[in-house]
Amino acid sequence: MKKIILSIILVVSFVGHAQVELNDYKYIIVPKRFGDFKKENQYRTSTLVKHLFEEKGFIAVYNDDLPAELNNNKCLGLLVDLIDGSSMFTTKASLVLKDCAGKEVFVTQEGKSKEKDYQAAFSEAIRKAFSSFEAVNYTYNGKKTASAEESVTLNFKNDVKTMDDNAKRAKNEAAVIKQEATLENQSYKDHTPVASTIKKAKNTSMKMVEQEASKETQSFVSKEPMTTNYEKGGANMNTTKKMGGVLYAQELLGGYQLVDSTPKIQLRIYKSSMPNVYIAKGENKDGVVYTSDGKWFFEYRANNQMVVEELNIKF
Length: 315
Description:
Radius of gyration: 25 Å
C-alpha cells in the first residue's frame, strides 16, 4: 500500500513539475518529417501530432513555417520528436519535447498498437502516447517572451548633447553593441560512455559488448534484480559509497531513466547483452550500472580512478 501511495505522489509531483515547465513555452514545433521516418508526413504522423497538440491548447507550427517572433527567438518553443520503437508485430511510438538547447523537457509513455495497417497503427500508438498529456492543463505563462534584441546592450556616446551636436556627429559615431548571453554561447559536454574496467569473475568468461544503435535490436526483459558474476574492485578502485536518496526507474526505449524525488533525472541506463548490466549516462559521468548480491551499483571513472556508488533503485 505504501508503494502505491508513494508511486501516486511521485507521478503527481512529476506531472506538476512538467506542467510548470510546459507553461513556460508558447509554441510546439512539429517537423514535417520525423527523424525515424523516410518521407514527409509519413503515415500522416506530422499532421496528427500537430492536431493533437492544438487540441490541448498549444500553438503548434511546422518547422518550415515559423512565426516571426519564434524565428527570432527559438527558445519560445519546444521541438517535438516522434520516436519509433516498433518491433516486428507491434507498432510503438513515444513523443519527446526538447528546448532550444536540446534538453528534454517532457517524455511521454510509449503507445502501442497491433494494427496491421501502418497508418492506423501509428495513429493508435501516437494517441495512446499522447494520453500522458491528459493530466497537463497547459496555459502559457508568458515567461519566455524575451526577444533576441533584449540580449543586446546599446551604449550611445554623447547622448546628452543637443540635437544639433548629435546630428553633426552622427556620421562619425557608431552605437557600441555588446552581445550578451545568447544561445550561440551555450556550451555542450561530450557524454560518450567511457570503457569499463569491471573484473571478470572466476570461471566466467565475459567480453565487453557494444551497444547496438539499431532500435529494432533494443528490448528489455526483466525489471527485477538478477544475480550476476561481477566482482567489484580492481586497481585504483575507491571505496564503495552510497548515492543519497531513492531513484525511481521510468521505462524508456531500451532501458530506464532514474529519477529522484525532486523529480530530476540522475541517470539514463541502456540495456547491454548481459542480464541487469546497463550502459549508464549521467550529467557529468558515464559508466556501467549492474547488480551484485541483490544490490545495484554505478561504476565510473573519476580523476583516473574507478569509483563505485551503491544505488537504491525502485522499479
